[in-house]
Amino acid sequence: MNIIVVRTGGFAALRRTWRVELGAESRSALEEWLRILDACPWREARDLDGDGVPDRFVFVITVESPPDALAAVVDTDDSELRATVPETRVVGPWRQLIDRVQSTDRVDL
Amino acid sequence: MRCTIVPPYLLARLSTLDDSNLETVATAAHQTLLNTRPLRAARQSAVLRPADPTQAARGPQRTISDAGGREILPGTVVRREGGAPTADPAVDEAYEGLGATYALFADAYGRSSIDDRGLGLDATVHYGSRYDNAFWDGERMVFGDGDGEIFRRFTLSLSVIGHELSHGVTQYSNPLDYSGQSGALNESVSDVFGSLVEQYARQQTVADASWLIGEELFTDMVEGAALRSMKAPGTAYNDDILGVDPQPAHMRDFVDTNDDNGGVHINSGIPNRAFYLVAETLGGYAWQRAGQIWYDTLTQGMLAPAATFADFARATGQSARNRFGDGSSELDAVEQAWSSVGVRA
Predict the structure, then answer these.
(1) Residue in A closest to B261 by C-alpha
(2) Chain segment B283-340, per-residue pLDDT in tens
(3) How far is A48 from chain B (nearest CA, A)?
(4) Across the interface, do B178 and A14 touch by the CB < 8 Å criterion?
(5) Residue B264: its chain A contacts at CB < 8 A?
(6) How many domains does chain A have?
(7) Which residues 74-103 of A have a C-beta within 8 angstroms of B?
(8) What gap in Å lies between CA B136 and CA A53, rounded to an integer?
(9) Range of the domain at B255
């Protein structure tokens, strides 16, 4: 399972990508990722567009090869989960997820 | 004020008639145009004065707050209108920048604050941790400190402060949907007036001005002059890590993308370049004639929320015609500019 966060928009409109590849993680670390992913409201975010607030960021979050249990929650047959979340909606589990991906992958631009 | 009976647009049309029977009319019309040029110039400078100087003269009502590194608004008030400078450069830069923005709109266009009704100007600095952005949230301007690697603090750039407050002017005068072409127009209008705030504060002519947006923001580690160039979109930066400035300068290079609300900060390069071309053609101080045409377009209810570049081009032409007349050099400059960037009005 890979989690990719792409941030676009903002005053500078620089596209930045953070990526986490989860394979050899410890069981407890993987469970924590799954707990956060599971708490995110994927269904309502799938078709969200920008929030219309000038100069704010927009995040696109993609989970490649999600575990079956997670895909079932979102009711998708796709090989990936994807959500577009404008910055003003980045709260709760979305905030946790984005912060965690960014801090795990600080070097990539 | 003296007025001529025959409107300049009619004289201009008469002067171009090539029917030999009308040659004397054409010559006379041309002569009249030449003779009345100083008059028309005087009248134009008259309308450039503030519509209601007493209203605008009340001055800004600024309040600067400090978010203390958290992403919670508004934060704690640290400087109010008339208060002494603080030891914090971000606070004082925001305070001065809000004042400079107020000054452009009041002095050049007679506008009393962003809503033209004296609304208080509020800003928050030190928003978030290493936050690489500045934005207008519908009520206040918000500035991050930057991450220190790519970006320095966002209050360093007067064009950025002017840009954010101009989003407020757009919101109160002619809202433009923040996606696709109307979103790029919303962005471009903020770049135009953000740049003019800086030019007015420094009393720079078209030729003296940098036409850069966010010139002070990049750290020394970035290969780039600024975030955007209105004079030459696509040339502001070229950096190993950040890549190349993606802004197009012409409609043929319009970028179709889902990123950035449909490329609002990218395709704004096209109307930005059009504004620069109008200003360059007219010369002098850009906030006067070019800025006036753009200001009229924004504040006279001419644009639908979903306006396209072509709609905007037509509206700026109408504004130039309304204020300066058919056949005026201002109208000609506007039409030439849009044509140069590939937008058919």
Answers:
(1) A50
(2) 999 999 999 999 999 999 999 999 999 999 999 999 999 999 999 999 999 999 999 9
(3) 11
(4) no
(5) 9, 13
(6) 1
(7) none
(8) 7
(9) 180-340
The answer to whether position A109 is within a domain reads: no
Structure tokens at A56: 């704010």
Q: Which residues of B have a catalytic role annotated?
A: 164, 265
Quick one: closest CA in A to B259, which residue?
A8
Q: Are residues B226 and B320 in the same domain?
A: yes
Indicate the pTM of the whole model. 0.85
In this structure, are B216 and B309 located in the same domain?
yes
What is the predicted ipTM?
A: 0.86
Q: What is the rounded CA–CA span in Å between residue B135 and residue B23?
A: 59
What is d(CA B141, CA B313) in angstroms, rounded to the nearest whole number?
29
Does residue B295 share a domain with residue B200?
Answer: yes
Paired tokens of B283:
């010369």
Overall domain count for chain B? 3
Please report, to the nearest 10 degrees, the dihedral formed by the alpha carbons of residues B147, B150, B156, B158 taken in order: -130
Label the pairing between strands B121-125 and B62-66: parallel
Statement to judge: residues B195 and B142 lie in one domain? no
How far apart CA B214 and CA B338 sit, in angstroms, is 25
